[in-house]
Structure formats: C-alpha cells, structure tokens
Amino acid sequence: MKRYSKTFTATLTDTLKQQLLQWARQFDEVAWLDSNEHIQRYSNYSAILAVDAFTALKTDTENAFEKLDEYQTITKDWLFGSLSYDLKNDVEDLTSKNIDGPKFPQLYFFQPKKVFLFSKTQVTLSYLNMVDDELQNDWDAILATQVTKKTISKEPIQLQARTSKQRYLQKVDTMLQHINRGDIYEANFCQEFFSTGVKLDPTAAFWKLNELSKPPFATFLKLEQHYILSASPERYLKKEGTHIISQPIKGTAKRAASDDEDAALILQLQQDPKERSENIMITDLVRNDLSRIAKKGTVAVQELCKIYTFEQVHQMISTITCEVCESVLPVEIIKKTYPMGSMTGAPKVSAMKIIETLEDASRGVYSGGVGYFTPKGDFDFNVVIRSILYNADLQYVSFSVGGAITAKSIPEAEYQECLLKAKAMRQVLGQ
C-alpha cells in the first residue's frame, strides 16, 4: 500500500500538541509519541502521531512474535503498538497466573492510515493513498481545533495497593534470601496500585502526566478501549539500519528544590556503590542479550552509569550498541532481547521465575514496550514504566512501580523508592 506525503511548516507548541490530541479522540486507534524536546544522539523525530487503523494484529502470547514477524514483513509499512511483559512466555518456557486487572492484549499493533512526523520546524503528513484526499482538510481541521480543558475524573479516585507495605517488605526479604542462596544476583520487583469504577478522561490524564514529567519517551496509546498513558524516561531498543541501541535505566534519586542540592544528589547517585552495581549488572545482561544477534565484536558500551536529569527524578542510564547483519529480521532482534533486562534481572530466566512467584499482579503491558516500526524495518520502543493503564470498558485504572533488588537492598528503602517513582501518577489521579 503506497503513501502520499506532504510537508508543512509547523512549530510543535503545547497548543498544537493539545489540538492534535483533541482531534485524534475521534479514532479508535491513536499513537502519540513525544520526545518533549529532549536532545538525544539517537532521536529521529520530535514527535509522531498515528491514527485510524487500516489493518491490525491483536494476539495472545502463543507464537506472538512469529505472528508479528509475519505482519511486519507483509505490510512493510508504519506499525504502532504495544508488547506486554508476558510475551516472555513466548520466548521462554514460562507461565503467568497472577491477577490481570487491566486485561490488555498481549500484543497489539496497527497499520495507521494517517501518520504525522514532526521535526522542530516541520511536519510531514504521510497518508495511505485511499485517504490522501483528506490530508489537507485534516491539517486545516487540526489547526482550527478549539482546545477545551477536560476534567481528569469527576469523582475522587480511591487507589488501592495490590500488595500491602508489610507484604511488600516480607517479599523483598524473600527475594534477598534467593540472592543470598545464589539463585539470582538481581531482580526487578514490582507492585500495582489500582482503582475500579473509574470514569477517566485519558487525554486529560496524559496531558497532566506529561506536564509533570516531560520525559523523552512519552506515549499516549489508544487501542480501542485500552489506553496507555506513559511518561517513560527509558528506551528499550532502537534499530537504525544495522545499528542497534539499548539504554537501560538502573539507579534513581529524587530532585531537590535548589541547584546546589540537586548537584549534591547527582554526585551521590553517581558514586553510590549499590546503584552503580545495579546498573553495571543490567548493562552486562544487555550486552549478553545483544551478543545473540550482533555481528561478532560489535557490542560496545557507549555510556556507563551516566546521570540524566528529568522533572521528577535523576536517573542512571547506560547506552549499549551493536551491529547486526542485514539479513537479521527486525522482530527477531526484539524477540532475542525480550523482555528488557532492566525489568527482569540476572540471570534473566531465573529472575523472571522468582518474580512471577512473588509479585501479586500480572504486569501485562507494564514493563513491556510501546513503539513503532518504519516501512524500512527500523524500530524504536520505550519501556512502559511511569505509566497509567486504563481499560475504559472495565473502568479499571492501574499503575505499577518497582525497583532492582540486590544483596545491598534495604526493604524499607526499596519501598520508599517505589513511592518516589509513583509520585507523578498519584498526582494525576488526585492522590
């Protein structure tokens, strides 16, 4: 299916972003990816909007990557969608039996009829030929859209913890026992906060979440009644030709009110032996994952334990890259590295098995990925963290937070780190 493209001069202001999101509400499938003007070495677009499915793939975990590979190979077009954490069951001999509140599809991608690609001063509209006669009218309608302020929720949202604080502390103790026995070295342990009977305005909720966080991998994803409102600071995996980039996060510190205090917290995080060991272990895991698909001798650590500052927190991020042969299929690259190391642990399979026994909720889309494939077979996916999940049909809203447990972990400190990561989502939901 061919596309018709036209480029307009456009400055991506907050007003234009709101106009785009408000205009997009009419469609059942919407993907909005916003870099929030973070200048990164590996950025291609300031933002992308994709709407209105021409085709779609929705599936459970069984042969999920095989189905995605077939879909991507046949379409050879823009595809946008989500990967759940539980696709691990398609990669390894694993199962998931925990409570699944949001009930999102395990894998859902759509081929949009209409794509908007934003740079700093321009936007290129790429429309399938079947709708190219709507291009100019759509752009005019977007610019004419009157932005109206929406209420996130008319009724107070009462959040519940799936895991009580006492049970969380006990479970971290159990995780530490596994570490002390040598079963694992590190594992990411998560907990869910949720509410039922919630009538949420997803667009308004996303806008507030993004305002609070302004992350480089912000995402608003609407797939029918399923909404992912993500303020993710983390890239899972990106492909540019034969070049592969992964940027795991491990290590978190709060922001301070003054520049001097902020600088001190950055230095403290930079020198913290526990945080550094967490990051280095996951960096080694990612190196190992990439080596499964990389050309021999090309896996390299470009940045190790570098501190990046965001609106809510400071984060320790490493950048690992490699080269692949042109014959390696895009979906194969994802499958061989999935799930991402920062959300599992080391050794990876053992960590995932222990995580499944200790966590009280199925992760679903949380700690999976949202992103896109290009017509050339390149891709870019975030890690679904710092994100609100909303099932409009079930009126179920949820977010999860977690952190890496190592031998040096103190259960109370890990719990407080979870609350720090939850701060923006709680604010959005009125807590």
What low-confidence regions span 5 or more consecutive residues with pLDDT below 50? none
Strand content: 25-35%
Q: What number of structural domains do the residues give?
A: 1
Gross morphology is: globular
Second CATH tier, the architecture: 4-Layer Sandwich
The level of helicity is 25-40%
Find the count of extended strands (DSSP E, 2+ residues). Answer: 20
At the first level of CATH, the class is: Alpha Beta
Whole-number mean pLDDT: 96
Name given to the CATH homologous superfamily: Anthranilate synthase
Radius of gyration based on Cα positions: 21 Å
Number of helices: 11
What does this structure look like?
With 431 residues, the protein is of the alpha+beta class. It has one domain: Anthranilate synthase (4-Layer Sandwich). It is 31% helix and 33% strand. Strand 14 (300-309) and strand 15 form a beta hairpin. Helix 2 (64-75) packs antiparallel against helix 9 (330-337). The chain is globular. The mean pLDDT is 96.
Topology:
Blueprint: E1 3-9, H1 14-24, E2 29-34, E3 47-59, H2 64-75, E4 79-83, H3 88-91, E5 107-118, E6 122-128, H4 135-144, E7 160-161, H5 165-181, E8 186-196, H6 202-213, E9 217-223, E10 226-232, E11 235-240, E12 243-247, E13 249-254, H7 259-271, H8 273-291, E14 300-309, E15 313-323, H9 330-337, E16 345-346, H10 348-358, E17 369-373, E18 379-382, E19 387-391, E20 396-405, H11 411-428
Antiparallel strand pairs: 1-6, 2-3, 2-9, 3-5, 4-5, 4-17, 5-6, 7-8, 8-16, 8-20, 9-10, 10-19, 11-12, 11-18, 12-15, 13-15, 14-15, 17-18, 19-20
Helix pairs in contact: 1-4, 2-9, 5-11, 6-11
